[in-house]
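new request in #modeling-help
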Amino acid sequence: MELKDLYRDVILDHNRHPRNFGRLEEANARAEGHNPLCGDRLTLSVRLDGDRIADIRFEGRGCAISTASASLMSEAVKGKDRASVRRLFERVHALLTRADATAGADLGKLAALSGVREFPARVKCASLCWHTLNAALDSGAATVTTEVPDEVASGRSQQLAGEP
Amino acid sequence: MAVNARDAGAERAPTPLHAHASRVLDAERVRLDFPILARTVHGRPLTYLDSGASAQMPRAVLQAVEDYEMRSHANVHRGVHLLSQEATAAYEGARDRVRRFLHARSAREIIFVRGTTEAINLVAQSYARPRVGPGDEILITGLEHHANIVPWQLVREQTGCSLVVAPINRRGEVALEEIVERLTPRTRLLAVAHVSNALGTVLPVEEIVAAARKRGVPVLIDGAQAVQHRAVDVRALDCDFYAFSGHKLYAPTGIGVLYGREELLAQMPPWQGGGDMILSVSFERTTYNELPWKFEAGTPNMSGAVGLAAAIDYVEGLGFEAIAAHEDQLLEHATAELTRIPGLTIIGTAARKSAVLSFTLEGIHAHDLGTILDSEGVAVRTGHHCAMPVMEYFGVPATARASFACYNTHEDVNRLVAALEKAREVFR
C-alpha cells in the first residue's frame, strides 16, 4: 500500500483544479450522488444531445479522490454516447475493484485511478460520480428531467454502501 | 490479572497488574496491559486515537471473558446445575459491580442492554412513547449523537409530540440558559449528552439536571463518552436515566447499561417480550418479571457483562483522577501542537472539554487526511461522527477526530503531528 499510488500527480492536479466544475444551466439531465460514509454530495448536470453527452458539469464538496474522479470522468465522457459511457464505467469499475484489471490505453487519464483499489475504504469515493452519472443518464432515458427524486438518490446511496 | 468469573462481581479491591499507588498514571506501563497496542499497521507502530469510537480492551478484560467462557458458561437464571449457578452469579455480580460504579441505590436500577443506542431506544419506547402526545415536547441539544436524536424522532412519528432542540454556540457548547428557557410545562423529557462525541464538549449536567428537576422534567443522560473519563454518581447527579456502552469503557462490544430510577422503571411496560422477562406465561395472561429482568428479554450477554465488570475494576484501579489528569495533559499538548499547524482549525473549543480533538485542515478533505494518517499508523475517525447536525452547524461535511484514552502517550501526539505534516506534504 503506497500513498503515492493513490495520490498521483494527475489526481492531485484534478483535485486542485477540477475541470468542468460548476452547474450547467442548459442541462436536460441531473442527478445527485451522496456518499453516506463521509457525507459528500455531488451534483451532476448533463446536456444530452440525443444519445450523446454534449456537455457535463459537476459541483459539490468531496475528498480529493471523489473530486478528481468526477473531474476525470467529466473529461472522459464528453462527446460519448450512452453505450460508450457504460462500457467505460465497467472498465473503471473493474480498475477500482479487481486486482487483475489492467489500465489499457483506452482509459487515458482515468488510469490514474488504478491505485485506489489498494485502499478499499476509498473505492466508493472514486465510483460515486460514475453511479451518479448512470442515474442522470437513466433519468434522461425515460423522460428528460431536471431533478432526480430523492428516493432515487437514496436508493443509490444504499447501493454504494454495499460496495466492497 | 486473572479474574475468576465466579468472583467477577464480588466486593474486592481491584488488583491491576501494577500498583498505581502514586495515582499518577504511567501510560507507558498502562500500554503494556493492552495487547493490541503492540501491533503494527502498514509497517508502523499503531497510534490508536480512535477510542471515542471504540476503546481497546486490557488483558484483564480479555482474561475475565475467557475465564468465564472456559469455566463457567451456561444459561443464567434457568438451571439448578453448577455452571448455570456460576454463570448467574457472574452475571448478577457484574450487575452489582455496575451499580457500585454508578453509585446507584439498587441493582434493580441497572438494566443490561446492547449499548447506549439500545438504552435510549428503551427509554424512548417504554417511558416516553406511552406518556406523550401532540403538544408535548421532548427536549434535546444541538450536539447530540444520532442515537440521541433518531429514537425521539421515532416517538414523534408515533405520537405526534414535538422535538425541541437547544442550540449550540460557536465554541460547541450548549449554554445552560438555552436549555432552561426551553423547559416548558409541556416538556416531558430532557435527553442530553454528558460529553459530546463529535467535539468533546463536557456539558454541565449537574446544573442541567437541577434545572430540569426543579420544573419536574425527567432527564436522560447519554453517558457514552463520559464514563471512561470521569467518575459518575447517578445519585449525586439526581438524573432519571443514564446510558452508556461497554466498548467505549475498555469492555467488549454488545454490552451496555441503562440506569433508571426505580420508581420510573417500575411504572414502565416491558420493551421486548420473551424469556427471562416473565414470571409466568399462559395463552391468556403473562406476568412480567421483577426489575431489572423485566427489561431483559432473552438470554443476555453474560460474557459481555463479565468483561464490563472487569473493565470497571480496571479503570477504577487506575483511578479516575489519574486518568483525567493524564488525558487533560494529552489534550493540552495536542491542542497546542495542532494549533501551530498552518491551515488547521479545531472544531469545538469549549471551556470544558474531554480529550477529543475534532479538526479540519485547509485544502485537505477529512477523508484524505484519514487515509494519509492511517498510512503513518495513526488511526483517527473521519466523517460526520454520527452527529450530522453538528457538522451542519459548523458548515463542514466532515472532520478528523483524534480521541484519547488512558493508554495514549505524548509520543502518540507527536506521531499525530508528524502524520499531519506528512499530509500537508502530499497535498502541497
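bot summary: The first helix of chain B runs from residue 27 to 32.
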